[in-house]
């Protein structure tokens, strides 16, 4: 990152803490930590900025001063004890625009204490993973008082975000200068400032030097190689690193399917029996790759420390509202909203709306079939080369309409889920994912199921599947990466011209970087990226015996997807805050559900083949019973495989068990110590009573 900062001097009290390195000396460590935290310098004028806060243009001066004081005030007085200054000084404000941008940072010792507060897990010198504590910092690998790289920049920015979000109202009833922005004790100030529009945005800065090195190792050279997942994790955090790790793993897992599918594609479609082996392999493959991914994911997240991080108690999400009351669990004052009202909103409004959207999707699908019939009739009448090309036009138009409908429905689903007023972010995400997955599944695959099981036109099914798959992949590449990158480049040129026109005596390097990044789009998370892979997995697995070439197209798409997504993360969007993750979450269940559905569809398709039907010319009931029996057998095999393959490798299981054992032993020792102290106190009290 290009800044005009100087290294932050080490706190003089830091040296007095170096003797506190024994893991059992917790009390002494804690007391010294408190002394050190209260002695931190909060008035350093030059520091490395990590996070940018942009205020609205018309924010009052008293509000700015109040916010500054709350950020720099000591922790014991209710502040965040961070470093804070405006981007521009008084002279620069007269020359430049964007006067409401502020830089936030922290001293090294403050970041280390923050790492303990958020529960970061680091590798110890004995190769075990343990929660970092400041008192035992010298027990951790690569820690040195002169080493500023012990915490990655993503971790430092995550700590800053945590401290800002945990700035809470104390005695204030409102935000100074804004009587309509009500506060109550314990309310997150940053969340209230954001929802009130006083703070426009908060985002972490890119480190241009580290970013350039990451780009060189990641995507600037178009060569087939493994991604630098650990470096991606160090720069963007675990959530994004897990997505790119899963994308890479899924791409390599598709290669066997692509290789096996190519010769099958060359066979005549009438030879259904040739596809039985391929479909059976697909069903086993879809189970094995998901189970093996769990093991690889566990190894990665253990190495990163997130697998053993303790879950924090979830705070109410920013958009949650209700009547102020006392939370029965935490005892804190917070908005309370009756669950029956939420259920009424879900079942009386959200559910009917989703059903209406599904009906509209089916209505559009029937229009598509009318277009297909029109194009087919036109081709049969003329038989020209032009009309043969026209046969693909309805599928292409329908694929574009599907993408548009998916994106419009996404906005509606977000609005509805927010309106349902879920208290926790996890509940909000689960309801949003459920709404989006149901609609996207029906919208993308309903036409294929209709062609396969109602029309029973396998030639049209193959054509539609190929067109939908290829068109959706091209559209996603353009809309998600190429178009935003082109717009960002145009904005970059405008900013550079504006900066070059400034007076020569102003060094606007940092100013240029901040202004450029604040205008970038905000990365909304990995939801859309996982959704794209989920739909791709459906195209590959649901109808594998119809279009074996789907896996080959998916591999080709994903090879470019890695680079386009990397470009998107590095050059199109603002740098997102790091979010610790131990897995891909609910998407694992979504992929497993899709693999179960694929068993049913492939068995049904094979059962409809002429060769299989010829074996049962007299009774279709016997055919149905045999197909159902085979389907149940394959499902049983899937579940046996899922049970037989452990989710975590043996060595990870042993390390986690060891950590749990040590935690229980430490808790037992602490309880014994407290019991001994209580007995001593009772003995002293008893001695006093017996004394004359």
Automatic annotation (TrEMBL):
Q: What range(s) does the Anoctamin transmembrane domain occupy?
A: 232-658
Q: Which UniProt keywords apply?
A: Membrane, Transmembrane, Transmembrane helix
Q: Where is the protein situated, by its record's location annotation?
A: Membrane
Q: In the UniProt record, does the keyword Transmembrane occur? A: yes
Spans through the membrane: 240-269, 275-293, 346-369, 389-409, 432-453, 533-556, 623-645
Query: How does this protein lie in the membrane?
Result: Multi-pass membrane protein
Which family is it part of?
Belongs to the anoctamin family.
What is the protein name given in its UniProt record?
Anoctamin
Q: Name one Pfam family in it.
A: Anoctamin
Chief location = membrane
